[in-house]
Specification:
about 140 residues; mainly alpha; Heat Shock Protein 90; globular
């Protein structure tokens, strides 16, 4: 699983660096900024694929009760925004508008396993999209 993801990730990161640091540095270029954001989505999701592969390996550690969490300090609001960006195409396709509102002016830093938290947020958002109709109500299944 790792073999096909590594080149995708490497090429996307290379292209991202070129776009960000190359000759096209005009910040008013919304096309360039949109391409950078799309590359960021590709990179985040390629990294998620690598983490999924690692999660499969972690299953044995869970069963053996030897799994250790990789705790770090990170901004929870920023991570939520990144996950929302990852779902932007799906939200557009389903014609669902998602608005993140917060009266919090300062970042919210937490000390937790960032990867696991991102997975939880992704699962919640994915399920919310899956079970929300275009009219804003609940989809009947």
């Amino acid at each position: 699983m790792r073999a096909p993801v590594q080149p995708i990730l490497g090429q996307a990161e290379l292209l991202r660096r070129r776009k960000n640091g190359g000759a096209v540095r005009d910040s008013s270029s919304s096309g360039n900024q949109q391409e950078i954001e799309q590359l960021d989505i590709i990179i985040r999701n390629a990294k998620r694929l690598l983490r999924l592969e690692q999660n499969m390996l972690d299953m044995t550690k869970i069963e053996n009760k030897s799994l250790k969490l990789d705790k770090e300090s990170f901004n929870l609001i920023e991570e939520i925004r990144n996950v929302i960006k990852d779902f932007s195409n799906e939200l557009l396709k389903e014609k669902i508008q998602l608005v993140l509102t917060s009266s919090q002016k300062e970042p919210i830093f937490v000390n937790a396993d960032k990867v696991r938290i991102s997975e939880v947020i992704s699962n919640l958002l994915g399920n919310a999209i899956k079970f929300t109709s275009k009219e804003g109500g609940r989809k009947e299944r």
